[in-house]
Amino acid sequence: QITLKESGPTLVKPTETLTLTCTFSGFSLTTSGIGVAWIRQPPGKALEWLALIYWDDEQRYSPSLKSRLTITKDTSKNQVVLTLTNMHPVDTGTYYCAHMSPAYCTPTNCSFYFFAYWGQGTLVTVSS
Amino acid sequence: QSVLTQPPSASGTPGQRVTISCSGSSSNIGSNTVNWYQQLPGAAPRLLMYNNNYRPSGVPDRFSGSKSGTSASLAISGLQSEDEADYYCASWDDSLNGHVVFGGGTKLTVL
To answer: pLDDT tens for residues A4-35?
Structure first.
């Protein structure tokens, strides 16, 4: 059974750095083809993808937030950590982590990923 | 402004068939697959459809997906009250070193 759970501060001040941890079970990020992503959702608004990290440590970031985001993994702890610097009130929202599975793999490459499992989300409010 | 375009709302009565569209471009839907997510009120999103038209186990066959060119659609037949939720399409975009893009979401109301 695959589960993911987000943890971190519920309140951060403007200009501070947000650090969120995704702790997962039921899979390993050392397994070829697997990834973990972060997605956020401002209150009452749409989902917004932030970043992802693959089993081979390759990372991808949202072009609009790339300068502020860092994603890392700790395979020994089954955790993925997201940091978002210089927080603004517009960064307020629920932050989700999700397990990524590929729809198609060749012997050398996987593609067409989807978010198969999601955490419950953690609400982060940015306010002074 | 989301990269993928969805109608903000859709509605239907129980038993009806409704479709939700998702429009993109050649760099996303046109060259990659589309996934759909359902978000019930107050809950986390869950995978509803992947690789354009594949249902994960546990998703009723009332849900179906399709893709043509740079657009995709989600169809729900035999609409039920528990289908009232927000629906999001998503795809990979090959531009700017590659990234995931979501639609703006469609709120489905069962009348």
So the answer is: 999 999 999 999 999 999 999 999 999 999 99
Nearest residue of B to residue A112, measured between CA atoms: B33
- Euclidean distance between the first and the last CA atom of chain B, given in angstroms as a whole number: 28
Q: What is d(CA B95, CA A62) in angstroms, rounded to the nearest whole number?
A: 11
Chain A: nearest CA to B24, how far in angstroms? Answer: 16
Chain A residues touching chain B at CB-CB below 8 Å = 37, 39, 46-49, 52, 60-63, 96, 103-104, 112-121
Model confidence pLDDT, tens digit, residues B77-111? 999 999 999 999 999 999 998 999 999 999 999 99
**Whole-Å CA distances, A90 to A3, A43, A56, B92:** 28, 10, 32, 25
Nearest in space to B87 (alpha carbons), one of B67, B70, B98, B102: B102
- Give the CA angle between residues A35, A40, A43 to the nearest 5°: 160
